């Protein structure tokens, strides 16, 4: 059985310099003849390794008892975060307090909540949806919680190609969108993403659309429930219920 990389820090972003492959200590390097998926060998094409190993920088390594996490449970809170982070460079895990949140259904905006448990530096993030891939580079600080805000350009019609993958160094998150047999809305191109520090998430200007017969939930710019209805309900006189207007 193969084991997917645990969520140590959501296809794969290629970590900035990490665990070095053992062997070839003298002179020039020799091409690896170790089989894919085995210890000290390259990761398989789907960035997985055999049971007991994890894929770090395209290398299958045994992180010992800290690797934790059940096979294939990508995106759940599993052990091994601190071990992977020690290899150097940024490394991410899903935020302990948040998972995925969505605004307006899943699209046009998607949010991924992560924390950098590795070093400060430059990190690459990859978002793939409906065969459209965005690759972006961001500067990050160690120990900081971030929100990846991905905005998708919409097209017309629906599709059954609804697989979404978000990749950070040390973390791969897969999700299938849409509800069979309806499928999901088509997008017109790759996403445009920003990596926002969680501490900078804000909501202001009020929350509109609520009424005595219609309740509207209010969200901040990070897709999280906003308190105080983002400064009040619009129109004035509509009841504010902490994070919603109306009712």
Description:
This protein is mostly beta strands and 247 residues long. Among the domains are: 94-200, no CATH class; 201-247, no CATH class. Helices cover 2% and strands 36% of the residues. It has one helix and 19 strands. The protein has one helix spanning 81-85, and strands spanning 2-4, 48-50, 54-56, 59-61, 92-94, 100-103, 109-116, 121-129, 132-140, 145-151, 154-159, 163-168, 171-176, 184-187, 192-197, 207-208, 216-217, 233-234, 244-245. Strands 5, 6, 7, 10 and 15 form a five-stranded antiparallel β-sheet that branches. Strand 3 and strand 4 form a beta hairpin. The chain is globular and about 70 Å long.
Indicate the low-confidence ranges by residue numbers: 1-31, 65-86, 100-106
Q: What's the β-strand tally?
A: 19
Backbone CA Rg: 21 Å
Describe the main β-sheet briefly: 5 strands, antiparallel
Shape: globular
- Beta-strand portion reads 35-45%
Instruction: Give the class from helix and strand content and strand pairing.
Output: mainly beta
Quote the distance from N terminus to C terminus. Answer: 52 Å
Number of helices: 1
Summarize model confidence as the mean pLDDT.
73
Element pattern in H and E: EEEEHEEEEEEEEEEEEEEE
Give the helix proportion (percent range).
Answer: under 10%
């Amino acid at each position: 059985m193969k084991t997917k990389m645990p969520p140590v820090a959501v296809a794969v972003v290629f970590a900035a310099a990490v665990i070095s492959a053992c062997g070839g200590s003298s002179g020039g390097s020799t091409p690896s003849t170790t089989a894919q998926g085995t210890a000290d060998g390259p990761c398989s094409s789907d960035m997985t390794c055999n049971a007991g190993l994890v894929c770090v920088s395209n290398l299958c390594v045994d992180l010992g008892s800290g690797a934790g996490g059940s096979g294939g449970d990508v995106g759940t809170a599993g052990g091994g975060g601190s071990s992977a982070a020690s290899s150097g460079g940024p490394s991410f895990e899903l935020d302990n307090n948040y998972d995925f949140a969505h605004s307006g259904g899943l699209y046009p905006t998607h949010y991924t909540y992560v924390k950098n448990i590795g070093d400060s530096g430059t990190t690459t993030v990859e978002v793939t949806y409906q065969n459209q891939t965005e690759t972006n580079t961001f500067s990050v600080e160690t120990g900081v919680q971030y929100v990846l805000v991905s905005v998708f350009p919409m097209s017309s019609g629906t599709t059954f190609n609804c697989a979404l993958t978000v990749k950070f160094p040390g973390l791969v998150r897969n999700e299938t969108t849409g509800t069979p047999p309806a499928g999901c809305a088509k997008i017109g191109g790759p996403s445009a993403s920003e990596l926002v520090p969680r501490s900078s998430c804000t909501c202001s200007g009020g929350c509109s659309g609520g009424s005595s017969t219609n309740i509207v939930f209010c969200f901040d710019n990070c897709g999280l429930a906003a308190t105080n209805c983002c400064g009040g309900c619009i129109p004035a006189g509509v009841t504010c219920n902490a994070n919603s207007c109306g009712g």
